[in-house]
């Protein structure tokens, strides 16, 4: 059933409130079970996990682009073609570690922290995270790097920015690679017309709320990273997850998914519970694709003060009830790869993308979830390599 804009408005806001009430009820149950325990108490980590400074991933640098200080990791020969990596939510440059090592011999690899993430600047205003500004960050970063064209590799939210970049600046691209994502137009169409995608996107409504998403992420020392990333064996270890938690422990980075994420504070509260335990949940879908060290890399950043709100502001700033403008039909080589078992993106999205773009290849990665470049690096690297060879890049 196709909904009118007014109907979408009421549906979105009713669901946002309902999801928020459910999350607040969960918070109440946690309190009643153990009133003396503080699920938002987080581990104090002053020293970054060693993996974040491992020289095999490259050199850490900073640049002012589009009036925002951006942090990036550089690896490879600057005289070779530029391969620029855009991460998703809730990630930062580290999520591309397997691809940096794979491609730095043939390309100049640049993986940067998008605005609001990692060691990049975090504007406070929600409006600072509009997709047009994110696109201009990419364009100006390329200028500052002295390049007019690049191979753009993207994941999740980075994919939405990358497809928008392709629509507005096609002459700046040699090729576009999109993982676990869709264009804004395809995503909006699926959200409002596909029941499967509606179920998978509940979090987007929750993330519209203030504070609640941040609190969700902060629970149990960002345990959500363990939950998100430990879906399959060996794709991250505990050290990797600590790298993520390190950044998101910072105080402003805390919020959860698209509809729920519209709410103030609720997503942040969800993320903060149990020292960001959500990272363990998100990333440990499969045993061993990350280890505890990987997860600590994530938690390291997201524990920092103010580190959760900016990423959730991506959802708050860009949720819309109407479909975006149609793309420009430009001949840019493009491939989209989604996981067969992705819990956030319906497999039908690939068909929608093929209907929207003339020059596109699609791949459904078997037995794969959402964090493709980390959980299935060999498969993803081969997909990218074969695509580039096919297009003589």
Task: Describe what this molecule looks like in 3D.
The chain is an alpha/beta fold and 393 residues long. The chain has one domain (5-390): Rossmann fold, CATH 3.40.50.1820. The chain is 36% helix and 24% strand. It contains 13 helices and 15 strands. The strands form three sheets. An eight-stranded mixed β-sheet has the order 1-2-4-3-5-6-14-15, with helices on both faces. β3, α2 and β4 form a beta-alpha-beta unit. Mean pLDDT is 83; it is low at 251-258.
Gist of the model:
With 393 residues, the protein is of the alpha/beta class. Helix content is 36%, strand content 24%.
Low-confidence parts: 251-258
Question: What is the total number of structural domains?
Answer: 1
| Proportion of residues in helical segments | 25-40%
Distance between the terminal alpha carbons, to the nearest Å? 43 Å
Q: Which homologous superfamily in CATH is the superfamily? A: Alpha/Beta hydrolase fold, catalytic domain
Strand content: 15-25%
CATH class: Alpha Beta
Q: Provide mean pLDDT, rounded.
A: 83
* SS content category: alpha/beta
In CATH, the architecture is 3-Layer(aba) Sandwich
Tally the beta strands. 15
Q: What about the largest sheet?
A: 8 strands, mixed
Radius of gyration: 19 Å
What general form does the structure show? globular
If you consult CATH, what is the topology? Rossmann fold
Spell out the helices and strands N to C. HEEEHEHEHEHHEHHEEHEEEEHEHEHH
- Please, how many helices? 13
Give the neighbour order of strands across the main sheet: 1-2-4-3-5-6-14-15
Observed structural traits:
393 residues, Rossmann fold, eight-stranded mixed β-sheet, globular, single chain, two-stranded parallel ribbon, alpha/beta, 15 strands
């Amino acid at each position: 059933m196709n909904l009118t804009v007014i109907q979408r408005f009421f549906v979105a806001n009713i669901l946002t409130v309902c999801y928020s009430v459910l999350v607040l009820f969960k918070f109440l149950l946690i309190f009643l079970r153990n009133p003396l325990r503080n699920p938002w108490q987080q581990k104090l980590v002053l020293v970054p996990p060693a993996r974040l400074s491992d020289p095999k991933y490259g050199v850490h640098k900073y640049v002012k682009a589009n009036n925002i200080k951006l942090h990036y990791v550089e690896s490879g020969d600057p005289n070779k073609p530029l391969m620029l990596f855009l991460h998703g939510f809730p990630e930062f440059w580290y999520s591309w570690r397997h691809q940096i090592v794979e491609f730095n011999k043939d390309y100049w690899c640049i993986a940067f922290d998008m605005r609001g993430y990692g060691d990049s600047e975090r504007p406070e205003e929600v409006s600072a995270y509009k997709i047009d500004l994110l696109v201009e960050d990419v364009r100006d970063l390329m200028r500052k790097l002295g390049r007019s064209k690049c191979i753009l590799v993207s994941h999740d939210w980075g994919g939405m920015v990358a497809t928008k970049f392709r629509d507005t600046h096609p002459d700046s691209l040699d090729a576009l690679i999109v993982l676990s994502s869709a264009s804004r137009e395809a995503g909006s169409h699926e959200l409002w017309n596909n029941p499967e995608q509606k179920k998978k996107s509940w979090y987007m409504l929750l993330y519209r709320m203030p504070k609640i998403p941040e609190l969700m992420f902060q629970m149990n020392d960002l345990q959500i990273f363990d939950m998100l990333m430990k879906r399959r064996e060996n794709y991250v270890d505990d050290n990797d997850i600590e790298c993520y938690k390190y950044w998101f422990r910072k105080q402003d980075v805390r919020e959860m998914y698209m509809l729920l994420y519209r709410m103030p504070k609720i997503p942040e509260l969800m993320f903060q519970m149990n020292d960001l335990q959500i990272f363990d949940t998100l990333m440990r879908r499969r045993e061993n694709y990350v280890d505890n060290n990987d997860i600590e890399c994530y938690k390291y950043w997201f524990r920092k003060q103010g580190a959760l709100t900016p990423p959730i502001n991506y959802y708050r700033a860009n949720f819309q009830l109407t479909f975006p403008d149609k793309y420009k039909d430009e001949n840019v080589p493009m491939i989209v790869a989604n996981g067969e078992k992705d819990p956030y993106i319906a497999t039908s999205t690939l068909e929608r993308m093929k209907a929207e773009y003339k020059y596109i290849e699609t791949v459904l990665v078997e037995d794969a979830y959402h964090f493709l470049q980390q959980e299935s690096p060999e498969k993803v690297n081969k997909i990218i390599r074969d695509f580039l060879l096919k297009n003589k890049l």
